[in-house]
Specification:
Layout (H helix, E strand, L loop, with lengths): L2 E6 L4 H12 L6 E8 L2 E8 L2 H10 L7 E7 L14 E2 L5 E9 L2 H10 L10 H13 L4 H11 L2 E9 L6 E6 L4 E4 L4 E4 L11 E4 L4 E5 L4 E5 L8 E4 L15 H7 L1 H9 L18 H6 L2 E6 L1 H18 L3 E5 H4 L10 E7 L5 H12 L3 E6 L5 H4 L3 E4 L12 H21 L4 H23 L1 H10 L5 E6 L3 H16 L2 E6 L16 E5 L6 H16 L3 E7 L11 E5 L8 H18 L18
Parallel strand pairs: 15-16, 15-17, 17-18, 18-19, 20-21, 20-22, 22-23, 23-24
Antiparallel strand pairs: 1-4, 1-10, 2-3, 2-4, 5-6, 6-7, 7-8, 8-12, 9-10, 9-11, 11-14, 12-13
The structure holds 5-amino-5-deoxy-1-O-phosphono-D-mannitol.
């Protein structure tokens, strides 16, 4: 939540910072602002609303030339989305400007202290106290980095702060606790940002910052210390994607582009993780064979779409390994006092690697001595850094707020993990594992066939653009797919959508069915006769009550023909892998329906891409 950028170098700071904000706008779009150091003073502008409003203001009243600057795109927490509450915030004399991501939990106490000392604060934000405190420190003679260490140590909660001081025009200083921050290392220029997308057009070399660290960037140098001032050596990494991955590439939305990237992303997620004989090579799990054999319970924890990937994983992992597997929303997990031992494997799934609820869940798990394995898409992010091991999903940057390729690559990582555990524990024969690996390798081509026929789904979406409610039904691994289809529609189209386990219908939800109500029905493959036939009966029951059935069924399954008002065919797959294809029409449907309604698909209202506050 919130995107922040800082820059020092030979280019126009305004241009670099505003372009960086454009790439981070998916993190929050309630307001945007910049502050630059020019001629011993801070200059800047900030506007409520999307970045376009700031662009317009800067075009009408350009800021003077500067090579040092910071910027912010906001997802509002404390104080509504107004010009005054927009970041950057300044100290009382306007010497220091600050941008912030996170929540300063003790801001009320600090604000009262500042007001008692005669400070007047202009906004309702928690951030402004940091600007005043920093300015007080530098006015008393501290340099900006020392001031940042002193102030950060007094703050409670989650924060990344990035600051400039009018009296130190050659530097930007930043601090992080429980909130993302990476450093971009260029030639004669440096960057700090919430994620690498902000500076990817300038450099692909980056540094990870640890918890409770302060970084100072100048043109030539990066120095990092902890809050006590002890120097720290940050870990360097190279970003394995480039600017084109962070652009729309001819698509109208990032989301649509990311849906279409899935065959490639799923292929990348499999790359190098098995040999030609289908034997898994997953050293990333970093557990000895003895440790793997002693795992007696798996708990998967995640939020939103990543949680639904976890629900699918439960079916696969329990079936292949016979290890009991629980799946729990991260924000519920740690408050229920879960039973964790050294033999519990906790798997945290997160596309961004920054979701605060998931981060807090893994901290709790590690404190109980459980082993934590992250499944994550973002190199340099906090969740993998704080886990014992990580399986990266290699999906490339996911910028649309609605997760798509994030989900399908998480599924692949979960399947690989399940198969690897089965291989080590010998709960499946090698040829059985190799058969699943073979089928996984066939999935990109199956997904591509669905995408080649996207227009069929788009036509249904456009026709249904004015519906008020849509239901999604699935069974077994199709149940999480139904939940995911409903979530996509809620977050993009803002209409009532719910996913149900089809077997639950008669226990209540069937009362919702009324004449003409669209109901997506995810039909299990025919290989599972008992599941398949029960689903077909369910479809008949809702159709008899007036539902308009949109049936997602495998090619060649004629048993559903008579009960489908709309039939969407997917390539035949095994039951456990079917989610990889079954979700694609649901993603296309939500994207197109929201487009037809005139919504901003990449930046749905009230949301932000990574939820970095609890
Ligand atoms: O970055 P994460 O995978 O941890 O994010 C978890 C959820 O916030 C995320 O999946 C969210 O539900 C998406 N907007 C769904 O499309």
């Amino acid at each position: 939540m919130c995107g922040i950028v800082g820059y020092v170098g030979g280019k126009s700071a305004q241009e670099v910072v505003v372009e960086g904000l454009r790439r981070l706008e998916y993190r929050g779009y309630d307001s945007a602002g910049v502050a630059l150091v020019h001629d011993g003073a801070i200059v800047g502008d900030k506007r409520a609303g999307k970045l376009a409003n700031l662009d317009k203001a800067l075009a009408e009243a350009p800021l003077p030339e500067s090579h040092t600057g910071i910027g912010h795109t906001r997802w509002a927490t404390h104080g509504g989305p107004t010009d005054v509450n927009a970041h950057p915030h300044r100290g009382s004399r306007g010497r220091v400007a600050v941008v912030h991501n996170g929540i300063i939990e003790n801001f009320a106490v600090l604000r009262a202290e500042l007001e008692a000392a005669g400070h007047e604060l202009a906004s309702e934000t928690d951030t402004e106290v940091a600007a005043h405190l920093l300015e007080r420190e530098v006015s008393a003679g501290a340099d900006l980095a020392a001031a940042m260490r002193t102030v950060s140590a007094r703050l409670e909660g989650a924060f990344t702060l990035v600051a400039v001081d009018a009296a130190a025009p050659d530097r930007v200083v930043a601090s992080r606790r429980n909130s993302p921050l990476v450093v971009g290392v260029g030639d004669g220029e440096h960057f700090v940002a919430s994620d690498v997308a902000a500076f990817i057009e300038h450099t692909r070399d980056a540094l990870e910052l640890g918890q409770d660290e302060v970084v100072t960037i100048t043109c030539d140098e990066v120095s990092v210390t902890d809050y006590a001032g002890t120097p720290v050596e940050p870990r360097a990494f190279h970003v394995d994607w480039d600017l084109s991955a962070a652009e729309k590439g001819g698509f109208d939305w990032f989301m649509r582009k990311e849906i279409f990237e899935q065959p490639h992303a799923v292929g990348d997620a499999l790359l190098g993780r098995h040999d030609d004989a289908g034997r898994l090579q997953l050293d990333e799990v970093r557990m000895s064979e003895d440790e793997i054999r002693s795992v007696d319970k798996i708990i998967i924890t995640a939020c939103g779409t990543a949680f639904y990937a976890g629900l699918v994983a439960k079916y696969a992992i329990e079936h292949w390994t016979r290890i009991p597997c629980e799946v729990e929303l991260a924000h519920e997990f740690r408050y229920r006092d879960p039973i964790l031992t050294r033999d519990t494997l906790v798997v945290a799934i997160s596309q961004s690697g920054e979701t605060a609820d998931t981060l807090m869940a893994i901290r709790h798990a590690r404190a109980q001595r459980a082993k934590v394995l992250a499944i994550c898409n973002t190199n340099g992010s906090t969740i993998p850094r704080e886990s014992d091991a990580v399986i990266y999903t290699h999906a490339g940057p996911e910028i649309g707020v609605a997760s798509t390729k994030g989900f399908t690559t998480q599924l692949v990582a979960c399947y690989l993990l399940g198969l690897y555990l089965a291989q080590v524990r010998a709960t499946k024969f090698g040829d059985e594992i190799a058969a699943v690996v073979d089928e996984l390798s066939a999935m990109p081509a199956r997904m591509q066939r669905l995408l080649d026929d996207a227009e069929t789904v788009y036509a249904v979406a456009r026709e249904l653009k004015d519906v008020r409610s849509v239901l999604f039904l699935g069974r077994h691994a199709g149940f999480p797919v139904a939940l995911e289809g409903a979530l996509k529609l809620k977050e993009l189209a803002y209409i009532h959508a719910e996913g149900f386990a089809a077997g639950e219908l008669k226990h209540g939800p069937i009362a919702l069915i009324e004449e003409g109500m669209p109901v997506f029905c995810i039909v299990p493959p025919r290989g599972r006769d008992f599941l398949h036939d029960k689903m077909v009966s369910g479809i008949q029951e809702i159709r008899a009550r007036g539902a308009r059935t949109i049936v997602v069924a495998e090619e060649g399954d004629r048993s559903v023909d008579g009960y489908a008002d709309v039939l969407l065919r997917i390539p035949a797959s095994s039951t456990l892998l079917q989610p990889l294809t079954a979700v694609v029409p649901l993603q296309l449907f939500a994207c197109e329906l929201a487009t037809a309604k005139g919504h901003d698909v990449d930046q749905p209202r009230n949301l932000a891409k990574s939820v970095t506050v609890e």
